[in-house]
Known about the structure:
Elements: H1 2-107, H2 110-129, H3 136-154, E1 157-159, E2 172-178, E3 187-193, E4 196-198, E5 201-204, E6 206-211, H4 214-235
Parallel strand pairs: 2-6
Antiparallel strand pairs: 1-4, 3-6, 4-5
Amino acid sequence: MIDEKNKDDSNKINNDDSKNEDTEVKFDFLDEEESNESKPENNEETYDKDELLPILLQQEEIENLKKQLEEVTREKDDLYDRLLRKLADFNNFKKRIEKERQDYCKFANADLIRDILPIIDNFEKALMISEDKDDPFYRGIELIYKQFIDVLRKHGVEEIKAEGEQFDPSFHEAVWTAEIENQEDNVIIEEYQKGYMMHDKLLRPSLVKVNIRKNLTDDSGKNRKEAGDNEESNRD
């Protein structure tokens, strides 16, 4: 009986020991699982950092390239704008030089023609004082005079209209005045010396006599004075 009882007790102890071992095995398994679960997480974090680093470097490089591109584009625009300005200046320079060249060609003989004009005046005076227009000498002078006039017209020289025209200080020079009632005021009534234009340039103004009606100027002066007095009285 005692032996059987001891056997039972030993069996119980053995069973308890086996349970404890099973329990310890189970706990060890759980610890391994926990350690295994934690390891992949660490691996994943390390993998993410390794992946992000080249991406960040690439983004930084892209930003630097963008800045360089903006700077190069700005320089290109500045150079292009300067080029356009230089081209515009060059075109203006070409136009100015061309105009100066044309003006030089047009007026290169201006001084020479200006010196010839007194000769033309003398021919005209000779033709005016000649009485016998059938005289061969008169016809010879007239022929030479017409040849001179044709040459002047060929080079763009034209007479300035004077007698019967309104006085214009840009083309006429008044050397005498008169007061004629039946003539309009500021009208040229006589020409003493012809004036000439070469293209659009004045070679010599016409020397003229101008009609000045003093009564009109006096009346206009009185009217202006009366108008001024009326304005002052209205202000008072």
